[in-house]
Amino acid sequence: MDLSLPRPWYREPMLWLVIAIPVLTIPAGLATLWIAGADPGALSSADTDARRIGQMQFADVSPDLAAARLGLRGTAVVEVDRTRVEVHLAGAAEGSLVLVLQHATDARRDQRATLEAIGNGRWVARVAPLGHDAWNARLESSAGWRLAGRVAHDAVAFDLVPAVDAG
Question: Most buried pick, 33, 58, 72, 134, via CB within 10 A?
Answer without folding.
Answer: 72
